[in-house]
Amino acid sequence: MTATPILELRGIDKSFGPVQVLHDVAFSVYPGEVTALVGDNGAGKSTLVKCIGGIHPIDAGEYFIEGEPVHVHSPRDAAGYGVEIVYQDLALCDNLDIVQNMFLGRERKSGLVLDEATMEEMAAKTLDGLSVRTVQSIRQLVSSLSGGQRQTVAIAKAVLWNSKIVILDEPTAALGVAQTAQVLELVRRLADNGLAVVLISHNMNDVFAVSDRIAALYLGRMAAQLKTSDITHAQIVELITSGRSGDLGLQNGNGAKA
Amino acid sequence: MSVVTSKSPAAPVTLKSLGRGYFDRIRGGDLGALPAVLGLLVLCTTFSIMRPVFLSSLNFANLLTQGAALTVIAMGLIFVLLLGEIDLSAGYASGVCAAMLAVLLTQHGWPWYAAVLASLVTGAVIGLALGVLVAKLGIPSFVVTLAAFLAFQGVVLLMLKEGTNISIRDSTILAISNNNMTPTLSWAALALGVLGYAATQLWRARRRKQRGLSAEPLTLIALRVGILTAIAGTAVYVLNQERSRNAIIVSLKGVPIIVPIIGVLLVGLTFVLRRTKYGRHIYAVGGNQEAARRAGINVDALRISAFVICSTMAAIGGVIAASRADSVDPNTGGSNVLLYAVGAAVIGGTSLFGGKGRILDAVLGGAVVAVIINGMGLMGYSSGIKYVVTGFVLLLAAGVDALSRRRTAKR
Ligand SMILES: Nc1ncnc2c1ncn2[C@@H]1O[C@H](COP(=O)(O)OP(=O)(O)OP(=O)(O)O)[C@@H](O)[C@H]1O
Ligand SMILES: [Mg+2]
After folding, report:
1. What is the pTM of this model?
2. Rounded to whole angstroms, how far apart are CA atoms B275 and B270?
């Protein structure tokens, strides 16, 4: 690998009380690429993402941004390093419109008053930059949007802040075929614009359609992280279900890495 | 259809497209001010046919002061309702604050401004206590404020020494609910209000247009300003008529002072909710608390502040009520004041489920409730019938709220 990863984790351990959820996890994310994070239910994908986002503190391990070691203790720290996360349960306010949601908690003001015009312009520009053309008006309430459009708004909200790394936790889980295609196209476009994108998904077709790299978690251990072009559908399924596939993955039952 | 482009000029907003948008919203279950306005029309027509005196300028002025206290309490309640909480103690909180005012004024001889300030601080402290119990200890607001409802009822009794009433003789306090502006001043206040409204609307539309954003068409702004001028102008004209039965002894004309007070509260609180970051966060917490938390909003502090605002507004309502009654007794803020205030907010269009409501709702709903109380009084119905009718209207409004919410959710 030639490029330096924009985000790199090494030796991450994370326990909830007596239960260790992440064991010695290493994870690298590169700019301009979509990295798919896969694994069975409960493998620890969302936990890993929350550690990256500063929601859960890590017990041990190192966190690098562009090769520099950093400490992330809160969502604000993560945002400061350009990390934005779109959570599995979107976290949008139905009673607010698209612009209001995109700027929630980071509203622009002029003096005491909200600067609606600037926020509207910036939101429009961001959606435009993502070539989003499916919403009628950005002053529409989020409650009136379809699932795919909501996902789009959540993603646009994440890229509004000059973020460098956008992490999407199962963005297509609740969507139909057409809307899934739309969101995947958007995910691809983010990476093509130079962002580092992490995509969590259970759908292998989606993963192979958009990702450049695949990282497979197995019971809280990183089984393998490979280029998508170097691996087959069958191999990745094996990695997800048993943690190994031929000479790929975890080489023995107690999880020591090859 | 794409409007989301920054370079191409914003889509033209026409009266027709706005009208269509409005009907779409109504069909989608967001009725806005419609039920309150329709209700007001129906009630006013019915009462004026059955009791022509309902339309007299004396009764009109009476109606305005009758509805003032509950409208102000409802304005405060809207902050709490927007968060999806409830404050059942707002009525008796206003009673406690009114009793505080009366005791300090009459028994301790405080000047009116100090007594009013003390009464408002009492309200704020009550709100702080309620808010901390709800936000920090996590006790449901229904329970906290129900307990406070009972306790405050007792506090009023204790402050008034077991039920004696304290009369208020301070002329400034009495003026709040009993005096009128001179007819000239009334017209001047109207002009100020209408011009101020028109100017802000035009200014906003112009600024948006300059930046290439979609702006409301001038015809719509003209229409709104026109309607406001017509209604408010008629009201001022009627109120400027002599309404004293014995004009030689005492002249009675002009707009009651309480009206501009309500107007200022309406504009000020609407500004807070609609134009400031704080207001935006209130709506956000009411819409999706978890989303607000993840956006870095301090949800607990916001919740406490809403209770503080609610109880402080209740204190203002208490002062207004004390002024109107010329005294404070154990029933001030009691019996059905709270239900009337909650009813006013809900009838006006504020949702009991949180996230939806405007300060204007308190004024519109307050008008409906005041008309019901006033009209039924003129009809000579017994208190029993009044309670039953008011309860029914509240239930109706809450039903409309629940149904419209279901419609919005189904889409
Ligand atoms: N806050 C928590 N406290 C205790 N245990 C937790 C907590 N969060 C997650 N876990 C546990 O950590 C393990 C990994 O959960 P995680 O949500 O990361 O899985 P996932 O890979 O995202 O699964 P899914 O595909 O179902 O979303 C699970 O066994 C879960 O029970
Ligand atoms: Mg998960």
Report:
1. 0.88
2. 8
